[in-house]
Amino acid sequence: MKYSYIFSLLAFALSTTGSIAQGNCSTVDLEYICQNTEYVQGIAFQCGIDCMAEEADCLEQCMLEALELSMPCIGCFGEQVLCIVQNCSTACFSGTEAECAECALQNCEAGFNVCAGIVDEDNDTWTNLCDCDDSNPVIYPGADGTSQGLDNDCNGLITNDELTTCSADINGDNITGTSDLLHFLSLFNCVGDCADLETGDFSGDGVVGTADLLILLSEFGLYCH
Ligand SMILES: [Ca+2]
Ligand SMILES: [Ca+2]
Ligand SMILES: [Ca+2]
Ligand SMILES: [Ca+2]
Fold first, then answer.
1. Helix 97-104 and helix 5-15: axis angle, to 10°?
2. I want to staple 25 with a disulfide (CB 3.0 to 4.6 A). Which of 67, 98, 115, 116 is the partner?
């Protein structure tokens, strides 16, 4: 029995598309698997080896001790092993590792994903394992910035190509916020010879007024560049 199928299954699960949400792995479980993919793969591999001749719950207990995953989520790994044994014994006992992995993918990958709740609801090819917003297709690990103030690439930071272009960032600190609003209000209704006219006249009509306030409010709270 070869246990390298688990490597393939996890690698595949990272990029495959799914359908139905609601699984046994919580959001915390999925994030843990995403953050520790190689470690989880290694433990699954080792526990698979250690439990080859043991009772059915050996694999689950072994993984539970080493991984910070919930029992229902780990149960999906156990079901996966059962599925492999039932469907792929020939490929995995006497075939190559590639044949074993291929058989596991075809027969047991979909079931594992359903069990674990691994889906790709926004069809950006990244499942909810590592897609930090699985309802928005312009957000996924490695995504290009879209200048919408979104963390497109899921790295926890809003970087240059992700920043919005905000005309209302009066003080130039790369965020349109309270300090800009206060400065703007001090200029409100200033017409003609106001020294700071240009600063608050976002709409370019020569008056600091309601049109400018609406622009500022539409950008309020945004990270800018
Ligand atoms: Ca996705
Ligand atoms: Ca997404
Ligand atoms: Ca980012
Ligand atoms: Ca500002």
1. 50
2. 116
Q: What is the pLDDT of residues 151-191, one digit of tens each?
A: 999 999 999 899 988 889 988 888 899 999 998 888 877 66
In a domain, residue 23? The reply is yes
| Percent helix / strand / coil, the chain, rounded to 5 | 50, 5, 45
| Spatial distance between the Cα atoms of 197 and 12, rounded to a whole number of angstroms | 57
Q: Which two tokens stand for residue 164?
A: 């919005």
Query: What would the pLDDT profile of 21-50 be if each residue is shown by its tens digit?
Result: 469 999 999 999 999 988 997 898 788 778
* Nearby residues of 87 by Cβ (< 8 Å), 6 or more positions away: 103, 107, 108
Residue 143 CA to ligand 1 centre (angstroms): 11
Tally of structural domains, the chain: 1
Any domain includes 72? yes
Q: Are 143 and 154 in contact (CB under 8 A)?
A: yes
Query: Whole domain around residue 85: which residue ranges?
Result: 5-116
According to DSSP, the residues that pair with 164 across neighbouring strands are 224
- Please tell me the distance between residue 133's alpha carbon and the centre of ligand 4 in angstroms: 27
At 169, list the tokens.
């960032």
Judged by its nearest atom, the ligand closest to the C-alpha of residue 162 is 3
